[in-house]
Amino acid sequence: MPELPEVETVRRGLEPALEGARFTKVLVRRPDLRFPFPKNFTKRLTGKSVIGLGRRAKYMLADLSSGEVLIMHLGMSGSFRVTQSDLQQTPGQFHHPRSDNSKHDHVVFEMSSGWTVTFNDPRRFGFMLLTARAELENDPFLRGIGPEPLGNSFDAETLAHACRNKKTSVKAALLDQKIVAGLGNIYVCEALYRAHISPKRLASTLATKKGEPTADTFRLVDAVKYVLNEAIKAGGSSLRDHRQTTGELGYFQHSFRVYDRQGEACLTPRCKGKIRRIVQTGRSTFYCPVCQR
DNA sequence: CCGCGGGCCTGAGAGC
DNA sequence: TGCTCTCAGGCCCGCG
């Protein structure tokens, strides 16, 4: 579920609980998530402290005093909850108030900061890995990932260059983490809509023959940055599983212009279009066939 | 090398 | 109320 804005929201929520704090107790309640937990996972964390908590694409990276990095991914349905240790809460008590999914509380970190951090993931597409800091760039998950879309290195020139020989649709290209990091289905649809670019266009049309950006490409880069920044301000989008670390929902789903709005009127002023849903490379795409060209 | 489709899981919602 | 079917935000890998 979680795309860059959701992961960044979670990272910001975890930061005060983790940064500068020691793992006083680590509880792992099953042998695996998407993958088995690393060997001696509990032992390699307990007593170590978190120097900093960063994010790359949709991965959270906790830099540890041991020289290792804890890589955490939310998969499709993962969420973290930060609670105060001294309240003696039942795991998951406040996680999803309407149904008890505490059976999916798979990992609990008790921190010297006094906070307890609980990872919940019903579908278990999430994972936690440990790698030496020096090996981070060679990690198969992180190797080859493209520029961070909110950083200066993501601009129209780099996007045009990355797309210039692409045979796929612009939709598929933006979902490709090697081209730009952290976008998923929702924010790609929303960014393309705001840039008035059809998801069906060939990615190579973002570049001229010389590989330079077109006017569309500048609009698209601006739209990507805008949508991601607005979504982060809103605490992400909560469709089903995403929660902030306080348990609150994100609310950017109320700002969707196309995602999950098939059949509804296009919101572009004076556009008479109706939002359509199509399937591209196995994923739903939502767009306005009239104002996205 | 590149693009696509399968598979990993559970749960929600639709349709009968 | 209940069964069955489809679908969901990600990502790696193997196939053609």
Overall description:
This protein has 293 residues and is α+β, with helices and mostly antiparallel strands. The chain folds into two domains: 4-138, MutM-like, N-terminal (N-terminal domain of MutM-like DNA repair proteins); 156-287, Helicase, Ruva Protein, domain 3, CATH 1.10.8.50. Helices cover 22% and strands 20% of the residues. It has helices spanning 4-18, 41-45, 156-163, 170-175, 185-194, 215-233, and strands at residues 23-28, 50-56, 59-64, 68-73, 79-84, 105-111, 115-120, 127-132, 276-280, 283-287. The longest helix is centred in the C-terminal third of the chain and has 19 residues, at 215-233. The model is unreliable at 92-98 (pLDDT under 50).
Radius of gyration: 20 Å
List segments where confidence is low: pLDDT < 50 over at least 5 consecutive residues: 92-98
Number of helices: 6
Question: Strand content of the residues, in percent?
Answer: 15-25%
Number of domains: 2
CATH third-level topology of the largest domain: N-terminal domain of MutM-like DNA repair proteins
Write a short abstract of this structure.
This protein is an alpha+beta fold and 293 residues long.
Name a few traits of the molecule.
four-stranded antiparallel sheet; 6 helices; Helicase, Ruva Protein, domain 3; N-terminal domain of MutM-like DNA repair proteins; DNA-binding; alpha+beta; globular; 293 residues
Question: How is this fold's topology laid out?
Answer:
Blueprint: H1 4-18, E1 23-28, H2 41-45, E2 50-56, E3 59-64, E4 68-73, E5 79-84, E6 105-111, E7 115-120, E8 127-132, H3 156-163, H4 170-175, H5 185-194, H6 215-233, E9 276-280, E10 283-287
Antiparallel strand pairs: 1-6, 2-3, 3-4, 4-8, 5-7, 6-7, 9-10
The structure holds a DNA duplex (16 and 16 nucleotides).
